[in-house]
Write a structure and sequence with these properties.
The chain has no helices and eleven strands. The protein is an all-beta fold and about 120 residues long. The protein starts with a strand and ends with a strand.
Length: about 120
């Protein structure tokens, strides 16, 4: 099955930026949805952003609109999350995920079947 590996996390001061990458390996289909989720200690995993691979349409959680941008490079099988104007509340482990839907960008983590191991993002004040 497809494997996903996140990278790009780290420590940044409030107001700073990071770019996360999610590289996919293995067999992939032409039409599918990928998304970014995050989980802080004591909280449930929450949707951050998603993208339809074939068409490039996107969706964002309200708390990141205007600050984060999701994109993909089809040739490299890599998804990105550009995070600007970071806040301490953005501190979490960020995961990339993939489902088989060619149409719907779901905000429910249960809709995603393949997950990476996560990358830590820490925003200091």
């Amino acid at each position: 099955q497809v494997q996903l590996v996140e990278s790009g996390g780290g420590l940044v001061q409030a107001g700073g930026s990071l770019r996360l990458s999610c590289a996919a390996s293995g067999r992939t289909s032409s039409n599918y949805v990928m998304g970014w989720f995050r989980q802080a200690p004591g909280k449930e995993r929450e949707f951050v952003a998603g993208i339809r691979w074939s068409g490039g349409s996107t969706d964002y959680a309200d708390f990141v609109k205007g600050r984060f941008t999701i994109s993909r490079d089809n040739a490299k099988k890599t998804m990105y999350l550009q995070m600007n104007s970071l806040k301490p509340d953005d501190t979490a482990v960020y995961y990339c995920a993939k489902d088989l839907s060619p149409w719907i960008i779901s905000k429910n983590p249960r809709a995603y079947e393949i997950w990476g191991q996560g990358t830590q993002v820490t925003v200091s004040s």
